[in-house]
Amino acid sequence: MLKGISIGNYLPGDSLVHRLDPRVKITAALFMIASLFIMNNYLGLLAVTLFFGGALQFSNMGLSYVFKGLKPVFIVIIITFIIHLFFTPGDVLYNVGPLTITREGLNRAIFMSYRLLLLIGVSVILTGTTSPVRLTKGLESLFYPLKKLRVPTSELALMVSIALRFIPTFAMETERIMKAQASRGVNFHAGKFTERVENMLPILVPLFISSFKRAEDLAIAMEARCYRGGEGRTSLYPFFLAVRDYMALIVIFLYLGVMIALS
Q1: Contacts of 57 (CB under 8 A, 6+ apart)
Q2: Distance (Å, rounded) from C-alpha 118 to C-alpha 109?
Q3: Predicted TM-score (pTM) of this structure
Q4: Which of 183, 70, 72 is nearest to 118 (CA)?
Q5: Is 16 helix (H, G, I), strand (E, B) or coil?
Q6: Who's near 146: CB < 8 A, 6+ residues apart?
Q7: DSSP letters spanning 81-120
């Protein structure tokens, strides 16, 4: 289930989206995510879908690769769908025991689940077309105004980049622990719901221990390399906006205007 997920994985390439300045891509991703939350109708959701499809086409990333990013949050999507389906009041369509399916609930469940799918898709494109180093430098550059407020922007950008980078690592670690526990006789698919929850403890405990160990190893490695934040540091490849970046910014702001109009 956790094998081959795409969130946090950088996919090297030479597409138009790969060549864009990371600050432009981060800005576009933030605008798309914000528009997903302010949209309350299917017309706006369709506009987001078209923009997402265009970004996917220019990134040369297959739709199947993007769908791999849904594996870690598939259960969240299902829970979101069920909650809105059964607990939204309105015109009753069907009764399932004590639960009722309403017209408004069905509409809301589809809308919210599809919104979540697009949200994950945007994240996959951003991390798949931007290397961790460039993503960190792009975030640090965008956070630069916060330095006036004494916010440690370099450390903040590094934390975000590390969090995205280690999603596949933690997924593989979880799969390894699950296989190890299954070889010892733990059955994750049998028994009552409470028994299944109890069976998750042999996964969560070693996963937390492994996570803290990795964090400690990373901190020691950074200290051994004399990492002291971004103060006084220079970049081997400084950022500059090319013509394609300005064109992309124009498209992004046009998209933002359309989203405001549709909302």
Answers
A1: none
A2: 14
A3: 0.75
A4: 70
A5: helix
A6: 153, 156
A7: HHHHHHS--SSEEEEETTEEEEHHHHHHHHHHHHHHHHHH
Q: How far apart are CA 170 and CA 207, in angstroms?
A: 8
CB-based contacts of 126, cutoff 8 Å, min separation 6: 25, 26, 29, 135
Quick one: DSSP state of residue 186? -
**Pairing of β 92-96 and β 99-102:** antiparallel
pLDDT of the chain, 263 residues: tens digit per residue: 445 566 667 888 889 999 999 999 999 999 998 888 888 888 888 888 999 999 989 998 878 777 776 766 777 888 888 888 888 888 888 877 777 888 888 899 999 999 888 888 888 888 889 888 888 888 888 887 887 787 777 778 778 778 777 777 777 888 888 888 888 877 766 667 677 777 777 788 888 888 889 889 988 998 898 877 666 667 776 788 899 999 999 999 998 888 888 87
Assign residue 15 a region: left if phi > 0, alpha if psi is -120 to 50, beta otherwise? beta
- Which long-range contacts does 31-36 make (Cβ < 8 Å, 24+ apart)? 31/252, 31/255, 31/256, 31/259, 32/118, 32/122, 32/255, 33/119, 33/122, 35/255, 35/256, 35/259, 35/263, 36/115, 36/118, 36/119, 36/122
What residues contact 79, with CB distance under 8 A and at least 6 apart?
none
